[in-house]
């Protein structure tokens, strides 16, 4: 559109396409913001097996891209009440983002830990990569539906991850710096 001169015969048509597309995107965003996550199926979950199985699902992708995955987790974490399939989806989304954003030979640190804040116990999943990162002005947008800076991206990965995490009473945060890397922390009360 920006490249088409105003006196080009296609300009008007392009303008209509652009306006209608923006309208559709606005409608979809409103719709997505109003939907709620399906009720969770909570079970007592063994955190170590949960993490190991989740990481195994992505092993090939790490190998293909020659990325090192440093996994660290407590020896004997307590069982946690969670919808493990949904939470697995969240962790896969976040790990996949790091895989996609980190050039060959890079590394991803996946650290699982327990912490206590105001007498409340939390399980933390931290995914930190040393990949391309992203400019500061976009960092606040990553949880918005359809925000994507990838050619093939849907921009729904972090949006749905936030919905699922919050449905667990938890939180998700994202920090990033260009050419340094990114860090995503998922916190779930246990
Ligand atoms: N680890 C990361 N490193 C750099 N950028 C990231 C990372 N994770 C997410 N992003 C940015 O946030 C955007 C939104 O992520 P996401 O919601 O998963 O959508 P998608 O992966 O489909 O683009 C990505 O397009 C990318 O620009
Ligand atoms: Mg993604």
Strand order of the largest sheet: 2-4-5-7-6
Instruction: Report helical residue fraction.
Output: 25-40%
Structural class: alpha+beta
User: Would you state the CATH class of the largest domain?
Assistant: Alpha Beta
Q: What can you see in these coordinates?
A:
The protein is an alpha+beta fold and 190 residues long. A hairpin with a 3-residue loop joins strand 6 and strand 7 (181-189). The strands form 2 sheets. The chain has a 5-stranded mixed β-sheet with strand order 2-4-5-7-6. A two-stranded antiparallel sheet has the order 1-3. It starts with 10 loop residues before the first helix and ends with a strand. It has helices spanning 11-34, 47-64, 84-101, 136-139, 157-167; strands spanning 43-45, 68-72, 80-82, 107-117, 120-129, 171-177, 181-189. It folds into 2 domains: 1-35; 41-189, Heat Shock Protein 90 (2-Layer Sandwich). Residues 93, 97-98, 101, 129, 131-134, 142, 147-150, 153-159, 176, 182 line the site of adenosine-5'-diphosphate (ADP).
């Amino acid at each position: 559109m920006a490249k088409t001169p105003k006196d080009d015969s296609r300009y008007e048509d392009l303008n209509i396409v652009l306006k209608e597309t923006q309208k559709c995107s606005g409608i979809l965003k409103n719709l997505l913001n109003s939907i709620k996550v399906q009720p969770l199926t909570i079970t007592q979950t063994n955190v170590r097996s949960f993490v190991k199985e989740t990481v195994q699902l992505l092993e090939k992708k790490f190998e293909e891209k020659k990325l090192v995955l440093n996994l660290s987790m407590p020896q004997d974490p307590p069982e946690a009440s969670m919808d493990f399939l949904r939470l697995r989806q969240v962790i896969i989304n976040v790990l996949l983002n790091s895989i996609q954003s980190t050039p060959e030979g890079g590394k991803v640190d996946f650290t699982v830990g327990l912490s206590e804040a105001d007498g409340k116990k939390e399980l933390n999943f931290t995914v930190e990569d040393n990949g391309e990162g992203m400019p500061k002005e976009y960092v606040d947008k990553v949880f918005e539906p359809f925000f994507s800076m990838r050619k093939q991206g849907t921009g729904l990965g972090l949006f749905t991850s936030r919905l699922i995490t919050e449905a667990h009473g938890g939180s998700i945060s994202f920090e990033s710096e260009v050419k340094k890397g990114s860090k995503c922390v998922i916190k779930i009360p246990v």
